[in-house]
Protein 1
Amino acid sequence: MNQRRAVVTGIGVVAPGGVGTKAFWKLLTDGRTATRAISHFDASGFRSRIAAEADFNPAACGLTAEETVRMDRAAQFAVVAAREALADSGAAPEEVPAHRIGVSVGTAVGCTVTLEQQYTQVSDNGSRWVVDAADPFPHLYRALVPSAIGAEVAWAAGAQGPVRTVSTGCTSGLDAVAQGAQYIEDGTADLVLAGATDAPISPITVACFDAIKATSPNNDDPAHASRPFDRDRDGFVLGEGCAVLILEEAGAARRRGARIYCEIAGYAQRSNAFHMTGLRPDGLELAEAIRVALDRARLPVDSVDYVNAHGSGTRQNDRHETAAFKATLGEHAYRVPVSSIKSMVGHSLGAIGAIEVAACALAIEMDTVPPTANLHTPDPELGLDYVPLEAREYPVDTVLSVGSGFGGFQTAMVLTAPRPEVGHD
Amino acid sequence: MTDTQAAPTAVPAASAATGVAVVTGVSALAPGGIGTADFWDALLEARSGLGAVTRFAADGFPVRVVGEVAGPETVPGVDPRLAVQTDRWSQLAMVATDEALHDAALDPAALPPYDLGVITASSSGGNAFGQREIEALWSKGPRYVGPYQSIAWFYAATTGQLSIRHGMKGPCGVLVAEQAGGLDAIGQARRTVLRGDARVVLTGGTEAPLSPYALTCQLASGLLSPGADPQRAYLPFDEAATGHVPGEGGALLLVEDAGQAAARGAPRPYGEIAGYAATFDPPPGVRPGGGPTALRRAVEGALADAGATPGEVDVVFADAAGSPDLDRAESACLAEVFGPRGVPVTAPKSLYGRLYAGGAPLDVVTALLALRHQVIPPTSPYVTRAAAHPIDLVGRARPARLRTALVVARGYGGFNGAMVLRSTPPTDSHRIPKGRVR
Amino acid sequence: MTLPPLAYNEFLNIIQRCTGVPSEVLATAADPAVTIEDMGVDSLGLINVLTEVENRYDITLDADGVQCFPEIYQLINDQLAPAAARTENAVVIDAPFDLVWEMTNDVANWPRLFSEYAEATVLHREGDTVRFRLSLHPEADGKVWSWVSERTMDRAARSVLAHRVETGPFAFMNIHWTYRDAPGGVEMRWVQEFHMRPDAPVDDATMTARINGNSKVQMALIKDRIEQAAKARAAGELVGQ
């Protein structure tokens, strides 16, 4: 079959716990948590005052002063991760025709940090509806339209092919990687930067999750606040960060001798058409997405070696996705390790899906499954192997990663170790 | 544990599939034209929908002319239970969706839910809603941010609400590329249908960018017109062009496989989405190499995707930025591809403004209406084409034999998109190339 | 409590504003058999109602497991009632009951009955219920305090229940007016139950002292004006004869 397939040949990560893929993977395999009291702003007066913050210094990451002013924090993450991913891939973008380079970057809340900061200026801290429009911050329009993030990544990579910004809330990351893979599959690009970024630790975003009591109020013990699948979980812990992957056509990557982390073998997106924030415990629509993704990957359910769960840390999610795993994987669901890295790096909204794909690619590369930190008392109503506390060395060839988000969106993606037949196309 | 209780896996496109993606239902919501019929009449009569800001006290505000969809802030026809939890941008999409579904004679409940997808474009999210909540946060405190902020402001709100409201459980998506994003959404909808990932996709986009803070953000782009005269503020391809006027509104449409549409007894399609391409400009300050510009690659890419030659294109719906440099780049591109004054070019948006995520979908609907009615809607009569633009700019409604239309869209930052629409002959709607009528 | 701290109509207004339920659905809210879900109100809508009430009264509502709005209404008032401060003041007016009733319930004329009100505007009248706006005389810095109240009169029971609709610095403010025959005339009694907002410039104790002081002044004035009117009327009647 001459079908074009997308493989991952480079990874760049900006995550809580340290910038760069190495620091990220070390955090995960050590089972440490990067959740702490919020330091980005004075969070007293908020219900949830904890987050997984990235210690990110733009200058130390190679951004110029002009870039730092021009770009929102989310865009800065993306450009830094894109540069790391390109370097990691060994691909020389200058050798690929610019119009064959594409970008698909996800974000849930775009440039809210800048939007909020500038709003407080022109509104005099919310005291006037008709804000002072006389002399706005020169880069403010870039903050209003999150496509500016896609544009920044494109500029960083010299991309002049298709460039898109995907914004499906908390499934943005998986969806953006999937659409990046489509560029490869459809033949509209040969090199794609696919990933997602979010910097949501700002007052308005923290407040909006406070309002619906979605985030953990465990302010006294931030390091142990993100507890997916634990009986004592009490909401998710907001995170921030970015991952960018380099996607190439499998045969071309192999011909240039690239290291291939994994193949994007299948994906599907479905929606529950039920509620903007609510999930039914049966997980039917997520199950459907998983089924279609496996079907497209042409892989049987028992080939799945690791499930990277959405695992946000809410009881509603834990029941929802566990039901979906049981419905799709059957008996195999009880054997396969399932873990949530949100226990360590928090929930960075749209970014996390891409960060999790990066973790999955590394899991395949390193044959190691990251753990679910803080899982001391597994919720007895769930009943799967959630890899408590410690990473596990384990042969990993096929990974299922899932995401679930506001709007009712459910996405599943199947990643596999490079398949031998790919080389013979 | 088995999966017998679960819903059935979506089947690949059923036997009636033809591999042709058609539009079976349209809508239009624009300044000066609410609903497709009203909108089309307004265009043919060259009725402008531009005017002064009325939704807030704008004395002294540096934006003077906008395109408002007339009516109260809460869009009439939206269930008040949904109105409290949504921004105007999503409400406009709800109303447009109702019209598109009705137009396509589509009852979503009659199809398997996984076969119905929703893919919209958004550019700036729930502006007024977000401004109210952030105002409450900063003036009163975090406890005053309401629970709907978490679902009303973010860019995915409209797609989510439409999916829930109409029981559409198939692929859902949201794409952002400012004014070009609508073509990406429709292009993705077409791909979804052609790949059999859904039978019908509700697509398009709307925008409501006229709240005080959203306008302030737009001012920073330097592309808004400072003009105070509604008739002269937005004059694309004119010597006097000084920027664009932002407007609210947009269009939702239904894309489905031609054979599937016929099989369900859909009304005659408006036309086929025959080709689509998207490209990105080189970074600012970087001189492009010798090859074609990114915009031209988008136009030629869409034509190639449609299997069409430039000579087959009967009309072009221009992006019409209204800024001298951008206008020159577009007219030069069209002259290169089609020859100087080689094809009629029109910019009806000069009558109602740039609607960002809503703009390209509305141009696609306009192009489809032109194909159906065999008439090219005009550019604003106040536009006088500058000699520097070697294009045949349509200044008044022009009857013509139209079979293929091209829509061009550009988004701030360097995004280019192009889409080719082709009329489907009346007989096609009842002739099914493969499969059979149920 | 003479009146629930949160009036039922106001509770309904909050529900409608926060959830968007249409009026015909709102009308079913009083029925304990109709659940919140039955009304088409989801978890976010309920949170919106609860947050509005919590912010208004600076309370925390534990509504876990609550099924219907009457339970929430009860929950709110149960929590607010113990917080209420209370004042009670009375005056005996030497005038016939009919005159006392008419003059003290003629809201439009209050600027000529009380010394504190600069303006009284009737906004809405339906049956025995009247909604009106009161404005105080401007303060030294020019600031004018103004608010909307509503009173429901029951002449047969010689009783009026009033509450502030726009509560301003109060979390709530209810007044129960009663009239009864007493030695020397008709006794008019005001029982005020209220609670200050946490961000109000004065606390409950200060407001209690202020109300007690001012009530004496106003009641003396009202007594004087009604008694004069009674005399004038009596004189007029004599002349008329």
Note: The mean pLDDT of chain A is 96.
Protein 2
Amino acid sequence: MVLTFPFVAMKVDSFENIVTWRWDNVLYMGVGCFFISWLWRYLLQRKEFSKSDTTGKKNLIQQTWKDRLFSDPKVFCPVLIAAFCIASVFPFIFSPYQTTIMTTALIYVVLGLGLNIVVGLAGLLDLGYVAFYAVGAYSYALFNYYYGFGFWAILPVGAVLAGLCGVILGVPVLRLRGDYLAIVTLGFGEIIRLVLENWDDVTFGPQGIPNIPKPNFFGLEMDFQTVTLYMYFVVFAMTIFTIVVVRRLNNSRIGRAWIALREDEIACQAMGIDTTKTKLTAFGLGACWAGMMGVFFAAKNSFVNPHSFTFIQSAMILCIVVLGGMGSIIGAILAALILILLPEYLRAFSEYRMLIFGGIMIIMMVFRPEGLISNVRRKYELHEGEKH
Amino acid sequence: MQTILDVKQLTMDFGGLRAIDHVDLDIKQGEIVALIGPNGAGKTTFFNCITGIYKPTGGDVFIAPPDEKPKRINGKKPNQITVAGLARTFQNIRLFANMTVLENVMIGQHCRTHTGILGSIFKGKGVRAEERRVIDYSHMLLKKVGLDQYAHYLAKNLPYANQRRLEIARALATDPFLLLLDEPAAGMNPQETLELDQFITQIREEENVSILLIEHDMRLVMSISDRIFVVDYGKKIAQGTPAEIQNNENVIKAYLGEDIDDA
Amino acid sequence: MDYFLELFLGGLTRGSIYALIALGYTMVYGVLGLINFAHGEVYMIGAFVGLIVSGFLTVLGWPILAIVVIATMMAMLFAGAYGFTIEKVAYQPLRHAPRLSPLISAIGMSIFLQNYVLLAQSSDFQAFPQLVPEFEFLEPYSHIILSTELVIILAAVVTLIALFLLIKFTKIGKAMRAISQDRQMAMLLGVNVDNVISATFIIGSALAGLGGILVASHVGQINFYIGFIAGIKAFTAAVLGGIGSIPGAALGGLILGWTESFATGYVSSDYEDVFAFGLLVFILVFRPAGILGKVSSEKV
């Protein structure tokens, strides 16, 4: 790490502009880099130290406070209820602006949970997840534009369409593994975006489709503030719906098959699980959440264009999954909230926020690669007396 | 007694290399049969051909589950073969490391249960009853292999010998009529091997399965096998009861080298 | 015929660039088995360093040849240094982490570098000086091939051959191949794995830097975002040819370059990228290891 330092400092020198010399910038950067690299090395050392310290006394079952928090219903239920209460009164306490941000964050919670099925549970690295989001958004935009369908009618349609796309993508990539799978899904995501961008006759190309109606509430006309509120609660309900469904899937026969697939594909097949079918269900079920949220996204912004569906979005959702901890539902929720809210509240640093954001991603991975919260497997208890 | 597995002239080529060369093998109901041979003789490849992980180049594999007609299974996928009633363990343990011990066994029941996507989401009465049944059955199997108290440990945290036991329990959970064990004693100490001996016999009695095993530990093989097949360089060189094999010249040659007669 | 030739050479130029960048991906993948997502940013930084150095020297009034040489050297040097730093910061601490973690930290690194350049150099497109002089002997063919294109193609060919020799015959090349076969074993045999990995990053990044300055002088303008698309395309090329294989990267780059060039020339320029990715998906589905890649099967 000592070797890094001269280069970290040297980075600075390359970026004075030719016309105006900016020596002051160089000075700031030099000092900053020195400080950061010092801190970096210190933390790395500490990490190494703690690693060697704990390996000796690692128990077979680690019962930490976190495990207790998530597995013991006595602790977990109040936390859940508290979270629910805070979430439901949130828009009444904070401004519509805050509510809008929170709505966006909740969209990403659902997206994160959806991708969590594909990446976290089934272990299929999908870098083109945003394509399904786009499918959802455009299906609402187009169906509405050409045929005048409403939000609630298209919501399931968008989800099903995206799910179908997931299965269709799944078929050719069944044989691919790991990185190849990643790059094909990435390619697929880009193809969808480029088609949307260039198929001017139908999708209006890069200009996008404006004036998409918001969902109606029994035909009531609403002013701006009420609409924001209403949208918030719609997405909030969808989030809860998603959490319940994903949680149930996670602990079901299907969910176990996904995890087995992630852990060891060959053993999984040898245990009589049809890996083809399992992969396709994972792709399909993962994609349909993106489709659902796509429909909502189109309605929320009342505008869609291809620029909302770039690779960076896919990367963002993937980050949510990995930051949260693969396969962990609570982790994904937390990570989504952090990743979306953090840049918003970092607006104070305005132009530096994406820089900081990138930095945080690196730091998180270096110091906690298993994510915020690792997936805790459910304990199935034996019911005495029911044995056969 | 009924023949439940009948392998005829099985051949497997990798490029120009013939790993298995026209091997015949049969197992009758309730038998424990061992497949032995020096390292690299093609034993594991033989397993992989039977269980569908490799597609054999030539020959036929027939199975006949009890009270059913024989059917040809080569060319089928591993999962279909498992559904048909052949279950296996792996030489290099392949557990689902980050799932609990209990869940590993529950996976084995996957192909015997039918809950679908909608069922999992709505969790109806039938689904819950099925879950219950799977959980209880898995607990019972764990108790049988002596891992009950570890049910909620992650599989990767088990000691080595117990991981091997768990693999067997997982295979048993698929409800097979023939169990294929690939070097179950590898890496075990003498005490553990001795326990394994009793364990395998016990499984045959209680679960009513036949067993085909690959093993290097000759003491174990000789004590539990009803019949033994010996392969070397992909060819079958001998078959018979343990006593016959022990005195077979070809076998001694294969294991100790050609020069034995001159010495 | 001229049109065909123009497209052919255009494709060759593009392909050469993709190949140059793809080499970095392939080398890193070969040694570490991971996708260096920040590689495209290194390319972008190479272009910027080239811009700054050449601009600076032009102000000082140096002769054009010296500017070209020094700017190229500096671009490669800085790109190499950045590659080295990226590896130390974002990858080395994660050597034993789950497989997805380095990927995420790479994406983080990519975002970080993009915004870093954005802040330091603003988001506008910046004009890049014409570094390569017009060759007089090419005058009659100027409608088919530009002198920059010729330089790019030549540079790519020379680099490829040099790299091939390096991997095949030098000590470090042997060490790289050993590590890609079995890292643990190489370590036991006394190969300093960290040093070799660093060297791989430095070489790969220097090539990307070279690619950066070449493209920049060809296209004539750069901004902070050019690395992303170039990175994805080059990665496509690497996978196309069979990731981990150096001739594969070259071949993949060329095929991708020609596909794009002919598809835009004869079909439609709107769908340029669709063709590129379509080709990728098509090849991977039918030959998952890429054109020259080895098909690896897992031992059971």
Note: Chain C has a mean pLDDT of 78.
